Amino acid sequence: MTDITRIEQNARRSRASVFGDLVFLAGHVADTKTADITQQTKEVLAKIDDMLARAGTDKSRLLSVQIWLKTMDDFDAMNAVYDAWVVPGHVPTRACGKVELADPGYRIEVIAIAARS
């Protein structure tokens, strides 16, 4: 049986779960809720980099990314940051949509799945 490793777990969720060679990331949001979409996207992607490293992998191993935006008006600015962040030739599958986020200050939330080996 393969063990499950949970990173930053509390009573409600884990920030990441590792099962075998797969890493599942929870939805990550920015720390600066007053920032514009460019800054919030940079903060979120930095958190994803950190979680992936803690789980023993990196963004070149991403399999799937889901991006939730507060408004599709942020789509182009978010993509400018995202496109510079992904590893050319190793881009994951991706979906992006507009949702009502948990706090009105959040402009973006990102969920991801990555491989470890």
UniProtKB/TrEMBL annotation:
Name of one Pfam family that matches: Ribonuc_L-PSP
UniProt cross-references to Gene3D superfamilies, sorted A to Z: RutC-like
Name of the protein in question: RidA family protein
Organism: Bradyrhizobium campsiandrae
